[in-house]
Sequence to fold (624 residues):
Amino acid sequence: MIYRAICMVLALVVAAQAPTAAQAQAPTAAQAQNGPLRIEITEGVIEPLPVAIPDLVAETPGSAEMGQQLARVIAADLSGTGLFRELPASAFISQVTDFGAPVQYADWKAINAQALVTGAVTVSGNNITVKFRLHDVFSGAELGDGLQFAGTVDGWRRIAHKVSDVVYSRITGEGGYFDSRVVFVSESGPKAQRRKRLAVMDYDGANVQYLTGSEAIVLAPRFSATGDRVLYTSYETGFPRIYVLDVGSVQRRVLESQQGVMSFAPRFSPDGRTVVYSLSQGSNTDIFAMDVASGASRRLTSGPAIETAPSYSPDGAQIVFESDRSGSQQLYVMPSSGGEARRISFGKGRYGTPVWSPRGDLIAFTKQSQGRFHIGVMLVDGSEERLLTASFLDEGPTWSPNGRVIMFARETQGAAGRSTLYSVDITGRNLRPVRTPDGGSDPSWGPLQR
Amino acid sequence: MKLKSSILMLVAALSVAACTNPDRFGSDGVGAGGDPLAGADTGIVPGSASDPASPAYFQQAVGDRVLFAVDQSTLTPEGRSTLDGQAAWLLANADYTAVIEGHADEQGTREYNLALGARRADAARAYLQSQGVPGGRLQVVSYGKERPIEVCSEEACYSKNRRAVTVLAGGLTS
Fold:
């Protein structure tokens, strides 16, 4: 695995200019241009912040192209959030040719750049080092210290994502999500005989690697909290069963293989020691929890209703799941040891596939109402429901590591229907497709990488 | 292992058949089923749909599937009648076992549809068992919405996709 080979080194770049001016100016909330560089992403409407990202300065011969590519990925990360607007290079007055030279803030101010990212790259054999600084143009000062990342050349995109994560974090005050991976089902072939295989990719759709073949139907892969393992359901024996796969070695083993029962919808507990999942026995589907080490499982729900799609709260204390015990699919929360569940969804329509946000504050879900499907979020007590999307078929939300973005699958209508991954902000803004080589479904967003 | 692989091959063969011949449960299938019974002395090709002991006959003349209403797993009168025929056939051809596959239309979330398909398959299984077919010869599996036979996004297709299909296994090697 190439990512195993990367050794990330984090070091402070000795700042050429001391970052002092940032505090000198009195912040005035009304005028963002005069206040500190900051995006409050909880605000209702955002005017994207203009940012200039010149190509990184090549400090070794032949690394100019790398400097260009790094800048492109950083720019794509930031504009992809909908919170930043990249200024075209053709507008630049000054050119950054020396990472150590003082920045001509007036030139950047003149083109209305509010943030400026400068950087330099050195390539030596298979090693790459990237230094960068984030500048608050209107304060005429650096925002935070310069940083340096080192790794291998084939992992260059990760370095770009790490730079983006720092920039995003410093300006929004939120954790980043760019240096993360998503496991999903890659789909090809006609609708009646769709071929499905597990794949993992960077959050932006780059670096797709396949984890299984397409001989058997595979469904709903789910990352562990550390991203080292993936749970999924496969029909390779002819019956749906849960497998656990080690992402590094791509070795897998069956987790639940009782004869005559179907197991599906697995998810790890936050500590990775327990798997919660559904078993269908006869006509009845209930939720069970299995201790991964011992394989011992215990029943968490009983009764004749369909109980499935369980997801843990980030503290592991509770489980949100769907049940049709009331007569239609609705969302419920119960203690993770089982016991009394309380219904949290009360709107019109059917609710399924609940997923607890990594911040613990929201539950994302799929809602089916009047022939349309929606991805939505609600507070964990079920209040303040907000629908973020609407289409013929949207389903299966998964949270970005910082709990600000949701990825899901959208299937188009009809015989030529195709499933594509999309992402959307929890505000409902910035809906955009995630480009994958084939169709995609059932995404599961992993943690920020280390 | 041998049985399992022959089951899988049969499942595969029947799924291909399901894709190429989606209309076999219409009037054609019933007509084709009526003929061999009446004209037994005109020459029955063993294994073909004219052979009442053949899986092809089971599939086409008896009818290998029952359909369900939206989000329901209750058998319809037509469904029970088809299953009566299936039960009689399975009792007469005791060397066959069957896997009952439950399916759902695409109008539902993936996990729920898996559970719903299980309910449908199990409704068919329970009925066959109530008609005397030993439970040991019947297995159920759900495909949820993963294997539609009709691909339009309209009720005309959905109604055919909400199904429980009895897929025969065994028999061939015995």
